[in-house]
Amino acid sequence: MNSSVIKSSNGEHNLANYESSASEFDWSQVEKQFSWYNTGKVNIAYEAIDRHAESGNKDKIALYYSDAKRDEKYSYQEMKEASDKAGRVLQDIGVSKGDRVFIFMPRSPELYFALLGTLKLGAIAGPLFEAFMEGAVKDRLEDSGAKVLVTTPELVGRVPVDELPELQKLVLVGENIEEDEQKVDFLTRFQQASPSLDIEWVDREDGMILHYTSGSTGKPKGVLHVHNAMIQHYQTAKWVLDLKDEDVYWCTADPGWVTGTSYGIFAPWLAGVTNVIRGGRFSPDDWYQTLERYKVTVWYSAPTAFRMLMGAGDELLKKYDLSSLRHVLSVGEPLNPEVIRWGMDAMNHRIHDTWWMTETGAMLICNYPSMDIKPGSMGKPIPGVEAAIVDDEGKVLPPNSMGNLAIKKGWPSMMKTIWNRPEKFNSYFLGGDWYVSGDSAYMDEEGYFWFQGRIDDVIMTAGERVGPFEIESKLLEHPAVAEAGVIGKPDEVRGEIIKAFISLRDGYEENEELQEEIRSFVKKELAGHAAPREIEFRDSLPKTRSGKIMRRVLKAWELDLPTGDLSTMEK
Ligand code: 6R9
């Protein structure tokens, strides 16, 4: 099943002792690292930032930020003060414990100040990816009952304020903002704010961050994480990211997605390292330059990015000095063996795959430095995590059987609930104890896990998780569309691309202009990355008797596969 094994490169933490018995590890050992261990009262922003500023690391660089226009750095002390000031601005407009403060803006230092300031007040931060359009923004603000939105003058037009009765304040980060009942000028208030703040000490199970993510049915769901997740953010920063004091770390994910918060904010700062944030869009030149310029030592990215870098050619790579790199990791989609081989040949680095989800809050199955890599495998569960392949009844299957990838309840960074929908939360569990991921996989005799696919219809395109239902619902709002079914179509670079099958209403003609119009409709209303790259018109779509579009049949059409059991199909 696996042709080659790449030998371990050994990290600081040799986890080999734990491999035979994951349950041997006791997470409460990790808690003792934190100042709250004795009091039980906690705040993740304090542990990530203030603690380092107070313990002799105040001048250490916490953040290097750059984009096309800005080039800045902040020490831990400066981050502490900036997040205190942002907290003050939010406190002054009435934010307090438990409130939802959403942040909808491109990466910038202010985004990070505002997010940390929100957490210091004990409020719940909700990051929104900057590419979201009006419909997507509205759904998320409405469901969460957000009280405050931090955004920019450029993006505020996408916020349908009149339709969001619970939204009280719009905090605008930009120049020359005129304040009114609702609008708040962030930068002016920030400059005047006092750089000190009384932190709200909360319980470890209190809400911290709300990430909206997609399943195969229904609207996007709000996954709530709590302060306690820091235990696992911290420990995986040590074990898996292999972070040490002197490291310069770069996670390329945007904080609109969970990787950009758990591993773009919390893990590196809890570990007290120097964190690099690069704004703007992906380009191979820009990324290599970023690695070179900051002498990045640990780099966490995604298969689509690696494939694009691979496609840009080794000549380009050779122009840069990447000798600072020590450890490279990947998440979000299957990491092809071919990409691992490219990593070895072109960069002389093993790329370490890691598996986890928005719901799980932190890494669960990984290739950590002290273990041998089997290219194509996601690795093994980290200590303290028990994973298995179970059948649909929750029965554990023997090695090499395909089934549901499931995790035994009880890891520290597990989501607390699905916002507003506790019944949805319960639906993740089988037999009480197994969290079922929605991925199918198998485990080999040596305990390595191999990803096979999604069991539901969730699409992973360029590392982003997109629910077909949200796109289908949007498509149906277009006047020409009678029925729509959306699937992921395999793609060499992006993993999958979004393909829509559409049947038209009477009076509309199938042509390219209409395709383009429908595509830009989704782009404008939802987000660029949610717009179908391919649209195919059909006279009718396959449906169950209850009227559900059978995406499985659409997929089979696309891949020229047998359509399987059609007994529930409408005749
Ligand atoms: C962190 C994150 C979760 C889904 C997950 C799976 C896919 C993530 C993977 C992987 C193969 C890996 N996924 N890591 N598939 N190999 N190493 O990506 O969270 O956006 O919620 O996506 O991503 O299908 O179920 P999220």
Automatic annotation (TrEMBL):
AMP-binding enzyme C-terminal domain segment(s): 470-548
Please name the InterPro entries in this protein's record: AMP-bd_C, AMP-bd_C_sf, AMP-binding_CS, AMP-dep_synth/lig_dom, ANL_N_sf
Q: Which residues form a coiled coil?
A: none
| EC number, UniProt record | 6.2.1.1
Question: What GO cellular component term, any one, is given?
Answer: cytosol
Under the heading SUPFAM superfamilies, the entry gives: Acetyl-CoA synthetase-like
Q: A Gene Ontology molecular-function term?
A: acetate-CoA ligase activity
Q: Which UniProt keywords apply?
A: Acetylation, ATP-binding, Ligase, Nucleotide-binding
The record's family statement is:
Belongs to the ATP-dependent AMP-binding enzyme family.
The name under which this protein is listed is acetate--CoA ligase
Q: Which organism is it from?
A: Alkalicoccus daliensis
